[in-house]
């Protein structure tokens, strides 16, 4: 293994009835939704696990670069218009 991972399983208590918000579960669900927006990953078309892993990595890199570029563009706009930058 490349890194040390700690797996934390979040469960509902046995006494709770109805809907209960569980901590941090939404992060995983949101990430799966973002990856599902990539057409290639929406359905399992790949024949090998290595190919599926590569496409998942490509989709993750694409999301990261877009988010980074958007953040940098916003920072340039904010920084150039502020009084502190002048």
Automatic annotation (TrEMBL):
GO terms for molecular function: DNA binding; transposase activity. InterPro entries: Transposase_11. It comes from the Bacteria. Residues 3-64 form the Transposase IS4-like domain. GO terms for biological process: DNA transposition. PANTHER family: PHP DOMAIN PROTEIN, TRANSPOSASE. This is Transposase IS4-like domain-containing protein.
